[in-house]
Recover the amino acids of this structure.
C-alpha cells in the first residue's frame, strides 16, 4: 500500500483542526442552547396540557378517579420522548405527582401525603414515570450512538477521499521536481518545461481543492447565510470563461445566453467556483468529449444553468450519489488522475445555500448535462436605460 506523503497528511490535519473542528464546537454549543430551550417548552406544554385536560374531564364528568394519574403519566411519556436527557423526564415525574396530589386528590388544593391512598398512588405514579423516562432515554441514546457511528464513518470516508485526491498530485509534483533536480544537466529544455508544467498544473489543482474545502466550511460555519449581491449574468459568465481559458486554453466552450438583461442575487465568487468546477469536471472526466456547452435560460423567476458535454457519460448507479461526495471514494480505485466527488459536493452545497437545486442527467456514451437554477431579480427597464 502506497504511503501518503507527510505534507498531504499535514494539510488534511491542519484543515480539519482549524476549520472543521471549531465549526463543530460552535455549532454544538448553539445546538445545546436551542435544545435546552426546546426542552423547557416541551416540559411546560406537556404539564399544562395534562392539567387542562384533567380539569376539563373533571368539569364535564364531575369525577376523575384514576384519570388524573393516567393523563399525567402520558404527559411524562411525552416529555421523555421529546426532550434531550434523563432529567427532564424525572422533573416531569416529580411535578406530576405533586400536581395530582395538590389539585386532584382530597383535600383539594393542599398537599396531603398522610392518606394511604394518596401515598400509594403517588409512589406508583412516580415509579412508573421513572421507568418510562428511563426507557425512553435509553432508546434515544441508542439511536444517538447509531447516528454518531454513521457520522464517524462519513468523516472517515471524507478524510480518505481527501487524502487520495491530495496524494496523487503531490506525488506527481514531488516526482517532477526531484527528476529535474537530480537530472538537471542531462535533461533537455523541453523535458524540463514539460515536467515543470505538469507540476504547476497539479499545484493549481491543489489550490482549487483547498478553495473547495474552504468554501464548504464557509457555508457551514455558524449557519451564516450567503451574502447575495445583484450580479449581471453576462459579467458572471465572462469572468468564468476567462478563468477557465487560463486553466484549459485548448478547450473551447460554446456559450448560449438569453437576449434579456438578467440580474441574479448571488455570492458571485461561489457561483464562479461552481461553474468552473463543472466545466473542469467535464474536461477531466468526460472522455471522448468534442463539444462543451454552457447554456443559460430563464424559466419564470429562475435562471437555469446547464453544463453540457458529449463525452462518455456517467453510469446510472452513480447519478444518485453524484453530489454527496461518496462517489469520490469509489474513484480511488479508478485510473483517473483526480477524483471529482469533493468538487461536485461543494457545488451542491453552494447551490443549496443559495436556495437553488442541482441535478445531473447522463446517458453512457452520449454525454452528461448538469443543471442548476437560481432565483433571478426583476430589473426596471426604464431605470436601466436612464443609467446607460
Amino acid at each position: 500500500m502506497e504511503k501518503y506523503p507527510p505534507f498531504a497528511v499535514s494539510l488534511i490535519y491542519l484543515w480539519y483542526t482549524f476549520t472543521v473542528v471549531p465549526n463543530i464546537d460552535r455549532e454544538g454549543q448553539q445546538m445545546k442552547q436551542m435544545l435546552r430551550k426546546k426542552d423547557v417548552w416541551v416540559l411546560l406544554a406537556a404539564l399544562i396540557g395534562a392539567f387542562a385536560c384533567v380539569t376539563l374531564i373533571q368539569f364535564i364528568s364531575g369525577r376523575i378517579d384514576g384519570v388524573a394519574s393516567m393523563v399525567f403519566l402520558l404527559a411524562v411519556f411525552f416529555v421523555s420522548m421529546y426532550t434531550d436527557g434523563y432529567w427532564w423526564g424525572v422533573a416531569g415525574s416529580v411535578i406530576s405527582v405533586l400536581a395530582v396530589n395538590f389539585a386532584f386528590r382530597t383535600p383539594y388544593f393542599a398537599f396531603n401525603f398522610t392518606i394511604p391512598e394518596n401515598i400509594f398512588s403517588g409512589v406508583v405514579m412516580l415509579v412508573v414515570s421513572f421507568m418510562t423516562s428511563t426507557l425512553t432515554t435509553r432508546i434515544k441514546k441508542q439511536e444517538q450512538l447509531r447516528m454518531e457511528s454513521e457520522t464517524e464513518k462519513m468523516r472517515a470516508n471524507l478524510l480518505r477521499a481527501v487524502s487520495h485526491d491530495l496524494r496523487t498530485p503531490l506525488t506527481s509534483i514531488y516526482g517532477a521536481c526531484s527528476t529535474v533536480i537530480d537530472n538537471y544537466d542531462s535533461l533537455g529544455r523541453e523535458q524540463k518545461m514539460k515536467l515543470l508544467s505538469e507540476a504547476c498544473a497539479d499545484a493549481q489543482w491543489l489550490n482549487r481543492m483547498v478553495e473547495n474545502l474552504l468554501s464548504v466550511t464557509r457555508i457551514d460555519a455558524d449557519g451564516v447565510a450567503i451574502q447575495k449581491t445583484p450580479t449581471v449574468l453576462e459579467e458572471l459568465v465572462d469572468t468564468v470563461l476567462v478563468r477557465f481559458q487560463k486553466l484549459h486554453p485548448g478547450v473551447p466552450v460554446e456559450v448560449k445566453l438569453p437576449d434579456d438583461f438578467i440580474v441574479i442575487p448571488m455570492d458571485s465568487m461561489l457561483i464562479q467556483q461552481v461553474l468552473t468546477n463543472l466545466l473542469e469536471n467535464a474536461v477531466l472526466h468526460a472522455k471522448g468529449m468534442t463539444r462543451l456547452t454552457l447554456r443559460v435560460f430563464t424559466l419564470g423567476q429562475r435562471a437555469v444553468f446547464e453544463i453540457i458535454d458529449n463525452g462518455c457519460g456517467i453510469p446510472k448507479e452513480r447519478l444518485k450519489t453524484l453530489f454527496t461526495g461518496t462517489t469520490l471514494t469509489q474513484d480511488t480505485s479508478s485510473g483517473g488522475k483526480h477524483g471529482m466527488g469533493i468538487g461536485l459536493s461543494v457545488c451542491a452545497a453552494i447551490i443549496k445555500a443559495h436556495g437553488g437545486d442541482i441535478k445531473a442527467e447522463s446517458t453512457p456514451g452520449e454525454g452528461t448535462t448538469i443543471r442548476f437554477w437560481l432565483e433571478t431579480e426583476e430589473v426596471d427597464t426604464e431605470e436601466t436605460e436612464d443609467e446607460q
Q: What stands out?
A: The longest helix spans residues 116-182. Residues 361 and 369 are 5 Å apart (CA to CA).
